């Protein structure tokens, strides 16, 4: 195939497709448009030695008809008087222009060129094509029945040349006849006047449940019209109900006082419009609806519910429904007063529709376990709260525990002030109600802690001028406790401290003197030993005495020196 360039003639855009078939040039034109037929592939130049250019066409049965002629240095002369009159003209390079192309123009046109003494003919075969005037789906089935081969629709492609091929698609997937669930029958009708073809395709289809929302289309394809697609269509598919499902709104979170709606869902098409709802022994018939609402549910609403078809009561669905509830009772609760040493075992009773989660706090601090007291102490006093949860339900209970008892002093201590001029006395006590603290000596209050968990601490400053026995007394309406501590005079303590320091210094001096004396003694003994050894050796040489005796003496002296040296080190 060869594609010629487009030319502008009389403001018409002309497209020509060329191909060589059995030695002939074939030109494909579009129906109703202007067609340009080239002479010798468009190689003829009127400026060259061309005397005459003539176009004619094949009438059939060996006859030809003249169309037009062009002589050198003359205008084009139209010769035809038949159907081509007013439709033919000559373009550049001696091409023939044929307007309003129609199917009867599918024949051979010949360009005859006279140049000098040579006469050459260039035959061209013309083919006219036309795209269909769209695609239309008609004769739609009102509904499809599952498993039954039914005429779905007819797809029509009007007035085309050549006749198109129609393809059916479901959800953009091509359908092919299988002799079972899919049957496709195509036919072509040719217009006697125009010669154009109308193609029809009838689809018979056996539907399935999954085809309920399927989209069907048809498309065409030929050399010029590939991918023309019709508007999509859908079909109603009917089938009997096979399954029922009972749905409950808010099933996982129903609590007392809520409303709940029972909905019976059937898989049939069309869906049933009447249902029976079985409400714990009571049956309610609902028409033109698939739901039933129960308001202000309670724990007594809990149970099994069913729905069934009015037309077929044996087809039913059921659902177990639970209405969540939560009740708690803490014994004892409120304000509780106990004596120290008593036992207390709070009892939390829970009535609920399911498993609960329990947590305890004391004074807003989380506890690891439920509070149980075998022997209460003042520190056990406080606000206890339990929280019980079940899904979205939440309940709380609390008790305010006060442990009372005769106060006791847990600790009475003293310490010297940082400046060394006073004593600080600290009295720690427990008791409830809050005990008052008093002292047997006048002092300045330094600090008193807050009364928390039955505990209180008081600190005072005193400057005793003599040795004293100081008592701390704590009391409340339940009793009194006293404890004493000995406090020395600040002056006496300072004197004793100085004396202790002096004694310590004297001991240090004594030790140093002893060590120095031992070292001196060791040095003196060592010097004496050296002098003695020297003299002894000299006497032995002169008298010729043996040295064994002197050696023993020397050894004894060395042991003596070593013993003195060890004492010095100590």
UniProtKB/TrEMBL annotation:
Membrane topology: Single-pass type I membrane protein
Compositionally biased residues, Basic and acidic residues: 543-570
Limits of the Ig-like domain: 32-127, 132-236, 242-322, 355-402, 407-488
Signal peptide annotation: 1-23
Region of interest called Disordered, as start-end residue ranges on this chain: 540-570
UniProt-listed InterPro entries: CD80_C2-set, Ig-like_dom, Ig-like_dom_sf, Ig-like_fold, Ig_sub, Ig_sub2, Surface_Rcpt/Adhesion_Mol
This protein's record includes keyword Isomerase: no
Top-rank taxon: Eukaryota
Alphabetized SMART domains for the sequence: IG, IGc2
SUPFAM superfamilies named in the record: Immunoglobulin
Compartmental location: Cell membrane; Cell projection, Axon; Cell projection, Dendrite
Transmembrane segments: 510-532
GO terms classed as biological process: adaptive immune response; cell adhesion
Primary residence: membrane
PANTHER family xrefs: CD166 ANTIGEN, CELL SURFACE GLYCOPROTEIN MUC18-RELATED
The protein's name in its UniProt record: CD166 antigen homolog A-like isoform X3
């Amino acid at each position: 195939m060869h594609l010629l360039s487009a030319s502008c003639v009389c403001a018409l855009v002309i497209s020509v497709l060329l191909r060589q078939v059995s030695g002939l040039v074939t030109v494909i034109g579009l129906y109703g448009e202007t067609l340009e037929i080239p002479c010798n592939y468009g190689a003829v130049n009127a400026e060259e030695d061309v005397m005459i250019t003539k176009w004619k066409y094949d009438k059939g049965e060996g006859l030809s008809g003249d169309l037009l002629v062009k002589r050198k240095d003359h205008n084009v002369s139209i010769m035809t008087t038949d159907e081509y009159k007013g439709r033919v003209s000559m373009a550049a390079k001696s091409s023939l222009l044929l307007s309003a192309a129609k199917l009867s123009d599918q024949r051979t046109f010949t360009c005859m060129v006279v140049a000098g003494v040579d006469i050459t003919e260039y035959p061209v075969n013309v083919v006219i094509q036309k795209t269909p005037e769209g695609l239309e789906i008609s004769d739609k089935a009102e509904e499809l029945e599952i498993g039954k081969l039914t005429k779905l629709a007819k797809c029509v492609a009007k007035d085309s040349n050549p006749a198109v091929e129609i393809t059916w698609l479901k959800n953009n997937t091509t359908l092919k006849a299988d002799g079972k669930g899919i049957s496709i029958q195509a036919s072509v009708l040719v217009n006697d006047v125009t010669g154009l073809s109308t193609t029809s395709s009838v689809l018979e289809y056996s539907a399935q449940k999954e085809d309920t929302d399927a989209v069907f289309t048809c498309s065409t394809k030929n050399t010029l019209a590939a991918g023309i697609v019709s508007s999509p269509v859908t079909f109603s598919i009917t089938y009997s109900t096979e399954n029922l499902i009972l749905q409950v709104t808010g099933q996982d979170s129903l609590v007392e006082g809520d409303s709940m709606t029972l909905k019976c869902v059937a898989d049939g098409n069309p869906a049933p419009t009447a249902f029976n709802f079985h409400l714990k022994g009571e049956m309610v018939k609902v028409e033109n609806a698939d739901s039933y609402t129960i308001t202000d549910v309670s724990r007594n609403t809990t149970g099994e519910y069913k729905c069934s078809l009015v037309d077929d009561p044996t087809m039913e669905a059921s659902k177990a429904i639970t209405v969540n509830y939560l009740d708690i009772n803490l014994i004892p609760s409120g304000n509780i007063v106990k004596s120290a040493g008593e036992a207390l075992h709070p009892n939390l009773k829970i009535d609920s529709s399911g498993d609960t989660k329990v947590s305890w706090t004391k004074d807003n601090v989380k506890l690891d376990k439920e509070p149980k007291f075998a022997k209460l102490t003042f520190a056990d006093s406080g606000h206890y709260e339990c929280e019980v949860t079940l899904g979205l339900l939440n309940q709380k209970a609390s008790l305010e525990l006060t442990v009372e008892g005769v106060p006791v002093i847990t600790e009475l201590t003293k310490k010297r002030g940082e400046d060394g001029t006073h004593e600080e006395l600290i009295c720690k006590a427990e008791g409830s109600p809050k005990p008052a603290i008093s002292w047997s000596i006048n002092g300045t209050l330094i600090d008193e802690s807050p009364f928390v968990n039955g505990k209180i601490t008081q600190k005072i400053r005193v400057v005793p001028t003599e040795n004293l026995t100081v008592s701390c007394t704590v009391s409340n309406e339940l009793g009194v406790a006293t404890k004493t501590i000995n406090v020395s005079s600040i002056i006496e303590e300072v004197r004793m401290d100085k004396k202790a320091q002096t004694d310590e210094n004297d001991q240090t001096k004594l030790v140093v003197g002893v060590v120095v004396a031992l070292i001196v003694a060791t040095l003196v003994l060592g010097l004496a030993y050296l002098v003695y050894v020297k003299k002894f050796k000299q006497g032995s040489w002169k008298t010729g005495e043996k040295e064994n005796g002197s050696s023993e003496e020397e050894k004894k002296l060395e042991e003596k020196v070593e013993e003195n040296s060890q004492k010095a080190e100590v």
